[in-house]
Amino acid sequence: DAGVIQSPRHEVTEMGQEVTLRCKPISGHDYLFWYRQTMMRGLELLIYFNNNVPIDDSGMPEDRFSAKMPNASFSTLKIQPSEPRDSAVYFCASSKRGQETQYFGPGTRLLVL
Amino acid sequence: SQQGEEDPQALSIQEGENATMNCSYKTSINNLQWYRQNSGRGLVHLILIRSNEREKHSGRLRVTLDTSKKSSSLLITASRAADTASYFCAYSGSARQLTFGSGTQLTVLP
What we know:
heterodimer; A: mainly beta; 7-stranded mixed beta sheet; 55% strand; globular; B: mainly beta; Immunoglobulin-like; 6-stranded mixed beta sheet
């Protein structure tokens, strides 16, 4: 199995630009999670989906952030417009129904100038 | 979400020594997990302990859980240089999402 796939691995953009992060979960997994990791705030859950349906988006910091999961094998996290304080590593993780273990992707390192 | 606390924040030991990391949390939990993160990589699951368990072993890892004190510890025995990484506890209550601790940076010197 290829594991959770994220793209791009690195993104550098300027303030005000739109950023789209992509994630392909492990095949057969029912849950997908988006996290953000920073030195100041640690690892924070932004949103998670169950069977492509958003369950809890209370961690999404602002309306500038949106996430979609159009099908079981693809999800996006979009930031529009981006700001320097959005600079962080964004992780996608997936898990299977009945199992609590989460499998993490390699992350996208985002730098907003 | 209320992030768990871990201590120490950083730990440096010699190869062959044991490393102990502690985690405290604030809510009722169903289970507590430990993850490892190598620099610049994603997190990797190490071990899970359920709320009705007190101790669990996996290879060189030993995890304890004290629900009365809302705390857990991870012991790595006979450490190796390859164990150098950040270690995070993560716990879940009734919902599916995990709350992660602040992490312990472990350095094992050869």
